[in-house]
Amino acid sequence: MGISLQSKLPTVGTTIFSTMSQLAQQHGAINLSQGFPDFDCPPELVELVAEAMRAGHNQYAPSPGLLLLRQKISQKTQQLYGHACDPDLEVTVTSGATEALFAAIAAVVQPGDEVLVLEPCYDSYVPAIELSGGVPVFVPLRFPDFSVDWEKVAESLTPKTRLLIINSPHNPSGAVWKAADLEALTRLSEQHPFLILSDEVYEHMVFDGQPHASVLTVPALAQRAFVVSSFGKTYHTTGWKVGYCIAPAALTVEFRKVHQYLTFSTATPLQHALAHYLDHPEHYLSLPQFYQQKRDLFASLLQPSKFELLPCAGTYFQLARYRQISKAPDVEFAQWLTKEAGVAVIPVSVFYHNAVDNGVIRFCFAKMEETLRAAANRLSRL
Q: How many angstroms separate the CA atoms of 360 and 335, rounded?
């Protein structure tokens, strides 16, 4: 008799990121699809990991994270956002931001609870909601600037709304929240008792002199929010999978209950290295300029092409319309581009639950200059 198995995630297959990276490999394409740098992290950071290993820091770290690292995170948060978080009770180190997002959702979403999701969105949110028995309620961002329609958010709130997931700087669009968005969210939170999950992994990639509008800058929001960040994004170490979550003590208690049975703790030598490297704020303080230069270079290189670039105010992603090149659906066009033009990208429809197709693709420009030049050369021939 065969095994009968009902999937808990029947609509989930291989992620588009894996699919496109695999396709890029098969066809020898330049991979501007998945969001990872093709350059290395600071060499001092590698040396600090090696030192930590040689010093014997190779056993389990405390489940909430190395205390020294949590203290440094707390200091950084205070300096950047004016938010004093208790390193003992309000900061948890996680195995990547995706683990933190999952733990936060699993900690507070009960079966039948509604979770507001602003679309397009990062692909881990909805599966985590569904695995927790929650009901995702989708609110589309305005196209083409991907700004929040606060009237639609207000209309979507019900007595069942448990959590609102927000993301700025925004993946996949590169849109960035303004002070007015925090004000609108604050007004809504005064009228409704929902919690907030703020995905701020691209916090150090905000361009053109704009500040990062962190939820932590507004005390009324910080007291009901999980705020998630990523060392992988900030230090070009996506393969290390180290992130963290800042939340009020009562939320952190529940968050850590889930975290301890997901990963228990995160790689110890990496935590030691990051704790010491946080003494060099010049790295993350110079990151906006570093990535803005890449954004501007890529945009100038694509000027002769038939792609129409959408505004990019943050992250390391650039969206582009391709209607002057093809009328094909975006998934089909992304596959064609990989096979025929030799550049792998991500179709933006995959970030919507109902596959909204605006004829837009996403490039990742977290690449070396020669990679961007080679890709742009191929794209400009189309």
A: 13
